Every structure is written in C-alpha cells, then in structure tokens.
Amino acid sequence: MTIIENLKAWGANTEMGIKRCANSEALYLRLVNMVPKNDGFEKLEAAIAGNNLEDAFQAAHGLKGILSNLELSPLLNPIYEITELLRNKTNMDYSDLMKKIKDEKVKFDKIVLGNN
Amino acid sequence: MSNIINQIKRTILVVEDEIINQEILKEILGSQYDIITATNGLEAIHELTTSIRPISLIMLDLNMPTMDGIEFLNKIKEYNIKSIPIIVITSEADMELSSLELGATDFIKKPYDMPEIIKARVNKAIELFENKLIISQAERDELTQVYNKNFFKEYVKKLDEYNPNIDMDLNVLDIENFQIINEIYGKEKSDEIIKYIADELKRYVKKFDGIVGRLEEDYFIMYHKHIENYANLIKEFYALLEEKYGITGVNFKLGIYEIKDKDIETDIRINRAKLVCDHISNTSQTHYLVYNDSDQKDSLLHEQLVYDFPTSLKNREFSIYYQPKYNVEKDKYYISSSEALVRWNHSKYGMISPGIFIGLLEERGLIRELDKYVWEEAIKDLATWKREGIKIVPVSLNVSRIDLLDDSIVSIFADLVKKYDVDSKYIYLEITESACNNNMNQLINTIEKLRALGFKIEIDDFGAGYSSLNVLTTIPFDVLKLDMLFVRGMANNKTLKMIEIVAEIAKYLDVVLVAEGVETLDQLNQLREYGYQVIQGYYFSKPLKKEEFYNLLGGKNDNN
Description:
The structure holds two protein chains of two kinds.
Chain A: H1 3-10, H2 14-20, H3 25-34, H4 40-49, H5 53-70, H6 73-87, H7 95-114
Helix pairs in contact in A: 1-7, 4-5, 5-6, 6-7
Chain B: H1 3-7, E1 11-15, H2 19-29, E2 34-38, H3 41-50, E3 55-61, H4 69-76, E4 86-90, H5 96-101, E5 106-109, H6 115-138, E6 147-148, H7 149-162, E7 168-175, H8 178-185, H9 187-207, E8 211-216, E9 219-225, H10 231-245, E10 252-258, H11 266-279, E11 288-290, H12 294-314, E12 318-327, E13 334-346, E14 350-352, H13 354-363, H14 367-387, E15 395-399, H15 401-405, H16 409-420, E16 427-432, H17 440-452, E17 456-462, H18 468-474, E18 479-482, H19 484-488, H20 493-509, E19 512-515, H21 521-530, E20 534-536, E21 544-545, H22 546-552
Parallel strand pairs in B: 1-2, 1-3, 3-4, 4-5, 6-8, 10-11, 13-15, 15-16, 16-17, 17-18, 18-19, 19-20
Antiparallel strand pairs in B: 7-9, 7-10, 8-9, 12-13, 12-20, 12-21, 13-14
C-alpha cells in the first residue's frame, strides 16, 4: 500500500488534504513527511511536563493549524481537544490526552517514515 | 482589474511560522504571485522596510512566536506601511473583530479554504485595494476635478466593455492660446476659466452618458455617445460661457474622433482627436473637425515644421513678399499701398503654403515671433527704399489676435519706426475681424494708442466673421477691407447686395474701402461702381518678391 492509502486507512482525509495542496499529491506527501520532524510535539510535551500552559497552548495551536490543513484527523482530534483546554488554561491532568496524541503520532510516524 | 495592472506579477509576503502552512500557500499562489516569507512579525517588518520589491499583500498568521499577528498589526502603524492590504489567517473566530479594528482587510480560515477560494480572496483584496488607491490618489485632475489622462483611459475601457455596440466619439477640446491667456490675465483668472470650462464639460458629457478628463494644461478629453451634429453644441457652449460667466476672448477647437473600431487603443484615439483639433486654424471660423485618415499624414509634416521654425527664422528662410494695392478712384490707377506677406522657403520642403504654417504657428504660440520678424523686415525695407530716394507707399502689416492681447505691441511698433526712422503714417496694421472678439476694452485701448502714434488701423477680412456691425461701431479704424470671399461670390445677387451695403457703411464711416482677391476686369468695374477705392488682387499683381516690388515702385532696375 502507498503512504496515501495507509494514511487513508489510518483515518486521514487525504482527498481533502491533497485538494488543499492545489491538488498536488507530491506536495501533500512532501508536507506530510515534514510532520514527524515538527518540533511542536516536543514543545507541547515539555510545556505540559513543566505545567507551562501558555507555551503548551502555543505549541498545540501551531500543530492544530498544520494537522488541520493536511487533514490528519486521528492526530488532529486530540490536538484540537487539548488546544481548547489549554486556551482556557484548564488546570487538569493532561496525561491521558498526551498519551492519545503520542499513540497516534507513533502510528502516523510508522506510516510515513516506515515507508521511506 | 485592468489588463495593464494584471500584467504585473505582484509580491505577497506570507507571515507564518509553520513551514508546512507556508508551503501550501506558496503552492496555491506561487504561479500568480511572487511569494516571500517571514516566520514572525519582526521578520515581516524587516522585509517590509528593506524589500526592494513593492509588496502588494500581507498574509498574516496570528499565532506566531517572537511577535504575533496582533502585535504586528499594532506595530506597522508606527512604520507608516499601512498602505498594504493584510489578510489575516486564523482559526479563531473571535479574533476577527480585533484584527479588523487593527486594519486587516480580510480573513482566511484555518484549515485553509479550498485553493480557488484563497486565490479569489487574495486577488480581490489586491484589486480592491489598488483600485481604491488609484481612485483616491490619482483619479482626478487636482484643479478641475475631472479625470486625469490615465484614469480617463481606464474608464474608456470600462465604457467600451459595458457598451460594446454603442457608437462613441472621443473628442479633444483645446482652449486656444491658453498660455497667452495665462500670461495676460494671470494664473488665478486662468484657473477660474479652466474650472468653469471643466464644469460645463462635465454637464455636457453627462447628457451623452460620457466622461471628461484633462489631457494637458489647456486640452480636455471627452468620451461619450456619438453625436451627429456638433455645430449647435459648440454654439451653446460659447453662449453659456459668455453669457453666464462673462468669459470672452476664449476660443475653442474641438477635434472629433468617431470610434469605428473599439479595438483601437485609447491612446491612438486621443492622438487622432488631438491631431484634428490641432489642425483647426486659430483664425478660421471652424471650431470643430472630424478625423479622417489623411490627417495622420499631415501631422508629421506639421511637427517637423514646428521643430524647424526657430532655425528657419534664424536662417532667414522666411522672406517678405509685397502685394501692391491700387487706387482705382480715378481712371488712372496707381499703387497706393501694399500688403506685406510672408513666405517660407524651407531648406528641405521648399515653399510651404502660408495656409499651412500660419495657422500652425498660431496654434503653437509661435506666430508672435514670426509677426515681429515680418514687421521689422518690412519697416527696414521701407527705410532702405526711402534712403534710396524711392517714392514709398504705405505697407500693411498683419497683426495676429495674439499680438493684440499683448500690451507691448504699442512699444514694439513705436520702437521699430524710431529705429528705422520711418514715419508711422506709412504703417497700416491689419487686424482681423475675429481679433475683435477678444476683450474689447483692452483692444480699443491698444488701438487708440497706436492711432495716436500715427499708425493706421485696417480691419481685414471684413464680413467673414459674425460680429461685423458691432466691430464697426466700437473699434476706431481707418481702412475697411472686404473679405475676399465676397469678391469670389460676386456672381450671386445676395453677395453683390452685401458688397454694396459694406460700401455704404464705409462711406458713412468715412473710411477707405479696400477689396482683395480681385482677379477679373468685371469684378474691378463692379467694385469701382460701388465706390471701392483700393483694389488688391491678381488682376493687378500677385504678391511680389521684395526686389520685384522695389522695381515696381521705381527702383534702380525699373524698366517701366
């Protein structure tokens, strides 16, 4: 299976993502390949660990923008959820949400990097 | 957006910290725009203040490190770079109002809308902004508030787009000799006149669903539905300016280009209308002309002549011819005077018809130089002949309407007769009847001063104008010269009657009566019968070279 097919099977709305990239599958794949290296995930994790909700919000918000543009829904959904909580500076235990994000990130990385 | 504007590839500054988002925008917009990027507000300000290329649009993400979008919007006010539209990119609906308040033009949501929508919004933002800029900064002529040339051209295109099947005319209106009016009346009065005219033109074009613009200092351009007959329109226009605003002495010329082919560029249409406008002689009674293709060929020669004029004058390519005038009161005719006429023997084109160059030099404001040259040459000739013991006769010198607007004309003639020691009674100044449509008080004042110095005033081309009787009762003069068209039309009974009436008037006013253009014995006899005292025309003599006339007067080579 191709990366696109795998991403689709994972739950990404690749058709919409490709459309957004001016119908360029090549561009979509190039951008999808950049996501694993995006430091937003590390920044989010570090900020949550340090209870720095503002920095965590900034990181999550940035990720939300990228993931929503590429329609990587399984990863976008928990990121979206945590962004809204962080926006309101909700004081809570974020570990479950972070685990969800990490689990999906692992799956995503495997699809993208595993096929490289 | 206009074609010209569309051809320029504009630059967009994308301010976005996420490379992936930048890349998507580059892909969507890159084919149409040059994209430069900044990853935060500070970098963006640096780009804006140092970029050599003008930036047409900023796409601004609100959430960025170092300096976010809101801070950037606040900051750019300090840098005086407000004149660039900004589209804010945000997923936060509640940020829209504050962004708008800070000067954002539009929004693009995250996740991004479909590429076509983003493109359309970007295009629209740039178009609206540029149009607004053009409109606010450059649309109108500052003084008259009509369109300036560039904007006029844009509107012509629009009118053509909306009315592809309607016949249109593009007209150029020239306020004749405006630079002279400016000199004489001063800038304030001239500006007032220009504004009046512009206001009237606006009202006029409105009737024909058109637009008006200012082409140059004294030229207006109009584009409106085709008009079949301009004669009444021009008449109304004159009447309005004279009656309503008391503006007299301002003449207009209207060049009309009837649009047969709407694919012809507006610049060419304007040039063609201006071409015919410039072809209308200042002295003719025609105030408008319609362009035809042969006009194009003449214009090149005209431009060359105007260009060559100063050199030709310096090189003495202009020479004076004298046409004798004969006194026919008694059976023995004799030369009683002459008219000095100018001829241009151009070094390249040979003899140029006065019919071409006189009108041309008048409309380009150069006739005064030529007139002064002719006056001096003729007075110099008189002085030379007198010195040589020839029995000299008075010479008539043509005085253009423009000359009469200039007060210095009195001192010019006074100085010339003094310089060459010629009695002023030998100088007749021929002024055309149409010159008398100028400021009458000033004209009378000038004429009285000249007459007090002994110069004679001759009304030239009498009967050709439209204010003849008025002229006779207001202008002090010594000689009345019938327009040659009357002589040519002598076969017509009505014309004959007119010739007779003019003779009666001259008798009543006790002035010398001259007829020009006399070519046959019949004409001569008839005119003598009516009491015409002096005759000029080919029946007696064509205009003669200086030497020939000198001989005729009894100079050393005289064989008679």
